[in-house]
Amino acid sequence: MSVMSIRVDDDKKRKLKAIASIQGKSMSSIIEDLIDDYITEFYNRNEENEELKTIMKVSEPSFNEWDNDEDDVYDNL
Question: Residue 30: which H helix or E strand, with range?
């Protein structure tokens, strides 16, 4: 699993944190669920899935190059 940083408006972050607390979830798990839903929705409504799969396969070596041991420090955060 990798780390992804995003910038979010302070008010949105506070609201998300409050909702996560009410639901007994972490903000990360809510964001991950939203990303999963977005990806699933894209695949379900997009006829260009084969093109996307091809692009992902071609880019795989580049993604592997970006992964390095220095990033491992973030995995346990």
Answer: helix 27-45
- Rounded to whole angstroms, how far apart are CA atoms 31 and 72? 21
- Tokens 């990033």 appear where? 71
Identity of the amino acid at 60: E
Residues 30-43 pLDDT 10s = 999 999 999 888 87
Q: Model-level pTM greater than 0.70?
A: no
Sign of CA dihedral 15, 19, 76, 4: negative
Q: Give me the residue spans of the domains in the chain.
A: 10-66
Query: What are the angstrom distances between the C-alpha of 14 and each of 10, 19, 44, 48, 73?
Result: 6, 9, 32, 37, 26
